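User: Run a structure prediction on this.
Assistant: Running it now.
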Amino acid sequence: MEVCYQLPVLPLDRPVPKHVLSRRGAISFSSSSSLFGGPAPRQLSKRRGAISYDSEDQTALYIRMLGTYDVRVRSQMGFEPERRGSHPYLYVDFRTLHSRPEAARPVSARNVRRLLSFQRYLHSSRFFHGIPANNPLGYILDDDFTGQAKLMLQKVGNWNFDIFLFDRLTNGNSLVNLTFHLFNTYGLIELFQLDMVKLRRFLVMIQEDYRCQNPYHNAVHAADVTQAMYCYLQEPKLAETLTSCDLLLGLLAAATHDLDHPGVNQPFLIKTDHYLAALYKNSSVLENHHWKSAVGLLRESDLLSHLTTEDRLNMEERLGSLILATDISRQNDYLSEFRTHLDKGDLCLTNGGHRLFILQMALKCADICNPCRPWKLSKQWSEKVTEEFFHQGDIERKHNLEVTPLCDRQSNSVANIQIGFMAYVVEPLFVEWSRFSDTRLSQTMMSHLSLNKQGWNEGRDKQEASSSRASEEQTTPAAKDSNSKVLPQGSKGS
């Protein structure tokens, strides 16, 4: 007989230990170890995603969440989604929100291993089948990495780089292959004495932690941002002043900046009383989760374990400062500071603090650079992000929540959303970036931005004209019917 135990939630005013906050999506609960009929807490603490035992407080048990999945502990029987709070939305698992309806089925052994094992259940991953004996610093490739993909990587610094094509050529492994290539290009593997196996494992875990169900916030978006970040790192002002540590952090932040994104925004998490919103006190909820998720993977992979504790913690903090800068709600704060620096002309990239700030601005630009890409690429990204917005709106409407205006498919269109986004978010940022780095790349981006705005405006005008014609056609038959009742002059009825 299956026994289910529900853990009472720890009061929010009780501080969560730092070692728990460093874990991916960590959340704390208060209970007693005697509640559990399964394995001992000390045994479970060795499992990733399972119960962790804190020897300093024997009454506290901490559950480390995988992604945004709330779990209920069962006695050696697996787990199921558990609702938290009183809102009806919390009955719904994020996995079901992004999948088609299907018949209910029991939790498979594979899923149990995937969520409870300390080491990833990677029987489907071919990246873990050994290292090429020749050229240990060569590309990490699988059988589907064709010559065309290699040729694309030779032009990875081209702003017209087609990440969708590259993802197809690499069989869906664009983030792993691209990031590893850039690490190798900069010589970061040798400079930081990174273990090849650990690096490969770390990159695969990053890619797997992006949710492929998300139309926009997925591993392909992360790869696209990483490629854009590389383009910015190649700009003369940055290339001449950035240190190897800056380059490492810039690429890591780009690859992990949206790690485990649930496909909904912060206001949605807050109004549904999601545990992440409570954990991070409604402040930069998603960005904090991305950062802590990245730190969790760094520690789990032991990628930087050979560094001193001080250096490792310093890198984790700087990584956090970069990822937290992508919070769109703080856009005006960063833009105002950037504009002030440019007006005063006091940016000095020999200063570590100024270099970190420029890396923050570069990552912000890379994160929202889609409108500055060629139309073919920009249009695809616009459609994907709008699809994700509308999906959130559908969820809100389904659960009787107030529908976020931007996410309402009944009152919005891709064109309207993109025109507003370009005018109020993208253009102000890239105008200032062009002031800072007035190069050919900046001119190209501004040119694409102007052309894309024109393209969306024309599309909107056509759509409005089409709607107007359709409206007229609906009223025309009625007009004809009323006119048919009027007898012409000279008829028998006159």
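The beta strands are 26-30, 51-53, 60-64.
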